Amino acid sequence: MVNSLNIKFHNIPASEAVEAEIRKRAEKLSQISDRINRCDVTVETSGKHKHQGHEYEVRIDLTIPGAEIVLNRTHPNEDVYIAVRDAFDAAARKLKEHIHVQRGDVKAHEAHEAHEAPAE
């Protein structure tokens, strides 16, 4: 369970249904790591109609011991639920990646020296 979940809406009316979707997806993140101290989610639309419909931006800030994971996803779609889904999918990937690095599952790449080809 996420210790602190904060949901904000900018330039878009608050929606209980969207909040429920965000809570559901935040709970799924807590199944990946039970060390999430805080999850701040901001859903906004620029109001600019570059395409038909709205362009939604979803920002997710995850705070875990020793790190903060920040994601911004802009989604040119009329469906805010797709924008939320894509942002949380990206957050899950980043969280898993962070966990693998913390555990040492992923090797750090060493700087490779430039090798010269032998002269002919």
TrEMBL record:
<dbReference type="Pfam" id="PF02482">
    <property type="entry name" value="Ribosomal_S30AE"/>
</dbReference>
<dbReference type="InterPro" id="IPR003489">
    <property type="entry name" value="RHF/RaiA"/>
</dbReference>
<dbReference type="InterPro" id="IPR036567">
    <property type="entry name" value="RHF-like"/>
</dbReference>
<protein>
    <recommendedName>
        <fullName>RNA polymerase subunit sigma-54</fullName>
    </recommendedName>
</protein>
